[in-house]
Amino acid sequence: MAECAAFFRLAAQLYASKPSLAEQANNKANGWELAATLFILNGSSEEQQFHVKETMQHIVDAKKTEYLARVESLGAKGFEDISKEFNETCMPMVPLQEKVIEVMRRG
User: Which of 39, 41, 79, 86 has the fewest CB atoms within 10 Å, i.e. the most exposed one?
Assistant: First the structure.
């Protein structure tokens, strides 16, 4: 799920000149990060839980940096490749991610 969040963080950066699109991308990234964080929290000890959000942010940032390097070196082809990876990896997890967010909102 971190790679899904990273995809949207990259999109937000690339859409910087279009604030509404950048905001949408950041909101989607937040949802993916939250879902991933909740999964990690579920399997963590109490001591580890204090570092989960920070750890998730580092993972997302690293993946976004990798994606950005691909876009910078390959241009549109790089973004197309990353989009295909997103569709293959993340799209099957959308129902799960939505369910996690729904359960979290209910408390």
Answer: 41
The predicted-structure confidence for 7-34, as pLDDT tens digits, reads as follows 999 999 999 999 999 999 999 999 999 8
Give just the sign of the alpha carbon dihedral 65, 68, 73, 79.
positive
Separation of alpha carbons 10 and 38, rounded Å: 22
Q: Is the dihedral of CA 40, 24, 83, 60 positive or negative?
A: negative
Q: What is the pLDDT of residues 84-104, one digit of tens each?
A: 999 999 999 999 888 888 887
Whole-angstrom distance, CA of residue 107 vs CA of residue 101: 10
SS3 26: helix
How many angstroms separate the CA atoms of 92 and 107, rounded? 25
Residue 55 has pLDDT above 90, yes or no: no
Cα distance between residue 36 and residue 20, in whole Å: 25
